[in-house]
Amino acid sequence: MAHDDHHHDHAEGSQLSDTALRVRALESLLIEKGYVDPAALDALIETYETKVGPRNGARVVARAWCDADFRKWLLDDATAAIASLGHTGRQGEHMVAVENTPEVHNMVVCTLCSCYPWPVLGLPPVWYKSAPYRSRAVIDPRGVLDEFGVTIDEAREVRVWDSTAEVRYLVVPMRPEGTDGWSEDELARLVTRDSMIGTGVALDPADLDAAGS
Q1: Which of 17, 114, 183, 213 is labelled catalytic?
Q2: pLDDT tens digits along 173-202
Q3: Which CATH superfamily is 2-211 part of?
Q4: φ, ψ for residue 169 (rounded to 5)?
């Protein structure tokens, strides 16, 4: 379901689930017993949040940028198009792709909990699951985007998509200028996790040059 960027009633959100509470208790116990290094655990989670998981989604976006037929398929039937690249599984059974354009910027949230497309984005970041993001993304999406460093012109519409247990969303960011003739591998390096949630945009080619990539 899409929301406009004006008025929307929102509850404060649910508490941690029983599963989440058990995971936290187990993590605390393992750390207390010295079986797990907290720093190593944080590094592992960060890797899956920002590197391993989102690479799948980046491949999907890069293919859509390069292949007009695949782009149309992705926008018409994201579940099938994504599955054709081998990305399937729990939390990705029913996917919808929404495309950013010069007229529209899309952003994804889960207002009730933290529904997230694991097969294409990996583990959800902590901020995605937080109550402030879940409420403010709907109430004040432009303000939230500003905090992520993304300023949307007032003339451009902001659409907020609310994930559910049945449907997960993938944002297809706009392709950066200056990438004509780039291969899918090269384009995929420009696609960030946040750009596929809508709280970011694809990297500029100059950003890769500055990073020495």
Answers
A1: 114
A2: 999 999 999 999 999 999 999 999 999 999
A3: Nitrile hydratase alpha /Thiocyanate hydrolase gamma (3.90.330.10)
A4: -115, 150
